């Protein structure tokens, strides 16, 4: 499994956040603890890598008017049969037009009788809102009793993603009176409530299964089951087993919705069993890279030179927000320690730290208080922080396929990692470090797999590197304006 699995079958430290805790009940002011920007901006906000005169409104509408762009749609949200209070929520979030995946998925999702859906779309194109709109449309909040009855279950691979999705439900549903949201992620057993009484429940699979088993969460009235990052959730053991176990405890006729940017062929076959007779929205792997993300690599002679390159880049990293992906928790801790000792301000988040600390770090990163985040694959997927303008693959993501001893490039993880930048038409830069022939080969395979160009940055001239990155952002932005993704 490529993503660092933070919750295993044995993990009993359950975290349940009642609606009034990390995710607040729907309010009309839409204030959020995990403050998101309004979604209409295109350039990385707060980044001096962007040009200030840039007209973000023009840009997003240009992208949404290009039929070849994943953000394109002919319809308006008003044409999709949504409740006026939900439309009001979208408007408050400044979502003007649906993206392609939202326009295509919503009629399929909201059709009655409900049908299953397997949906694929590039990173940062609004899959979350697509399934959240369906979830909100299907909740019955008409009585006190129903408001306290769990009706929709969304499973995500990590606590950070579960909390983020809870925030999106709250934001879009802010005008739905009585909307209650429960977050079920690992927490101390002493903090567990006796009963989870929220209409929409978002959680990680192990915790949710455990809550159902302990009769804290009543599974009998669930109408919708969503798996976000579904390929990751279903592949391999661990999360996959937990998802199957959980689904086995839910009503048989539940609507199953699977979303991801990636569905490798083997997992897709399995996904079709998990979501029988599903409608499908698919992409070829050559269509998966996002034009707004400029992909670069740096040839570093040694591991030490990798570190030196990172430190050299630091000035650029802090211009916007940046994520540095490393292969292991140990590597993350070492780099953090070394950089901190040398006077740099960096934060780190891995599966090795406790839940409360993880929440504090990701919240600080979202708010911009922490600008450089060192992490493992635990944050490779789904995390949406629109100010991220730079992603560094300090280590090329690799995987050891089952039954093999040979490491291979992890195509899916590469795509998800670089997709933490370039969100919803924004521009971003992804730099991968390679320090030997093997890594260089992996990178070449990644390039071939996605049919994309990954250009070299020359580390012998740092002024040139800086110029190149700034120029890249400018060009990428110009390209993205006429993108044919
Ligand atoms: N119709 C819209 N108009 C404007 N902004 C939108 C719209 N839909 C989604 N967004 C914004 O786009 C960003 C990316 O959305 P989201 O996180 O759902 O992407 P995703 O497709 O799930 O990506 P990933 O595959 O990386 O998980 C979010 O900040 C969201 O608020």
Automatic annotation (TrEMBL):
The keyword Hydrolase applies. The keyword Nucleotide-binding applies. Pfam families: DEAD (PF00270), Helicase_C (PF00271). A motif (Q motif) lies at residues 75-103. Transmembrane segments: none annotated. It catalyses: ATP + H2O = ADP + phosphate + H(+). Keywords: ATP-binding, Helicase, Hydrolase, Nucleotide-binding. GO terms for molecular function: ATP binding; hydrolase activity; nucleic acid binding; RNA helicase activity. Its EC number is 3.6.4.13. Residues 1-53 are annotated as: Disordered. PROSITE patterns: DEAD_ATP_HELICASE (PS00039), HELICASE_ATP_BIND_1 (PS51192), HELICASE_CTER (PS51194), Q_MOTIF (PS51195). Belongs to the DEAD box helicase family. This is RNA helicase. It comes from Penicillium oxalicum (strain 114-2 / CGMCC 5302) (Penicillium decumbens).
């Amino acid at each position: 499994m490529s993503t660092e699995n933070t919750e295993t079958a044995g993990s009993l430290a359950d975290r349940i956040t009642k609606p009034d805790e990390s995710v607040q009940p729907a309010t009309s002011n839409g204030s959020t603890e995990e403050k998101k920007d309004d979604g209409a901006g295109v350039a990385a906000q707060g980044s001096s890598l962007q040009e200030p005169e840039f007209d973000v409104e023009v840009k997003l509408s240009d992208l949404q008017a290009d039929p070849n762009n994943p953000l394109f749609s002919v319809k308006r949200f008003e044409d999709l049969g949504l409740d006026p209070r939900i439309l009001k929520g979208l408007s408050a979030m400044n979502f003007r037009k649906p993206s392609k995946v939202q326009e295509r998925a919503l009629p399929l999702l909201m059709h009655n009788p409900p049908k299953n859906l397997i949906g694929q779309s590039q990173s940062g194109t609004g899959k979350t809102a697509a399934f959240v709109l369906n979830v909100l449309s299907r909740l019955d909040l008409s009585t006190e009793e129903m408001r306290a009855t769990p009706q929709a279950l969304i499973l995500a691979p990590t606590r950070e993603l579960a909390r983020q999705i809870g925030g999106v439900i709250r934001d879009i549903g802010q005008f739905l009176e009585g909307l209650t949201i429960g977050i079920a992620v690992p927490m101390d057993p002493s903090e567990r409530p006796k009963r989870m009484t929220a209409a929409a429940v978002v959680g990680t699979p192990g915790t949710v299964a455990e809550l159902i088993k302990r009769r804290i969460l009543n599974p009998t009235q669930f109408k919708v089951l969503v798996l976000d990052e579904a390929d990751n959730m279903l592949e391999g053991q661990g999360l996959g087993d937990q998802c199957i176990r959980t689904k086995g405890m839910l009503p048989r006729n539940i609507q199953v919705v699977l979303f991801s940017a990636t569905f490798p062929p083997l997992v897709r076959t399995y996904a079709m069993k998990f979501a029988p007779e599903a409608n499908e929205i698919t992409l070829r792997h050559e269509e998966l890279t996002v034009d707004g993300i400029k992909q670069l690599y740096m040839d570093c002679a040694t591991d030490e030179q990798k570190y030196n390159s990172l430190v050299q880049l630091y000035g650029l990293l802090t211009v916007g927000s940046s994520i540095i992906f490393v292969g292991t928790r140990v590597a993350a801790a070492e780099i953090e320690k070394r950089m901190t000792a040398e006077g740099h301000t960096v934060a780190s988040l891995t599966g090795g730290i406790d839940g409360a600390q993880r929440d504090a770090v990701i919240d600080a990163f979202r708010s911009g208080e922490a600008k450089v985040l060192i992490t493992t694959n635990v944050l490779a997927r789904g995390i949406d922080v629109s100010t991220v303008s730079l992603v560094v693959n300090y280590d090329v993501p690799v995987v050891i396929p089952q039954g093999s001893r040979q490491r291979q490039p992890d195509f899916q993880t590469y795509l998800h990692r670089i997709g933490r930048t370039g969100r919803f038409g924004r521009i971003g830069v992804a730099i991968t470090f390679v320090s030997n022939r093997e890594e260089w080969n992996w990178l070449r395979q990644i390039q071939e797999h996605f049919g994309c160009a990954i250009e070299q940055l020359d580390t012998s001239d740092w002024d040139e590197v800086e110029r190149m990155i700034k120029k890249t952002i400018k060009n990428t932005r110009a390209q993205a304006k006429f993108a044919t993704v």
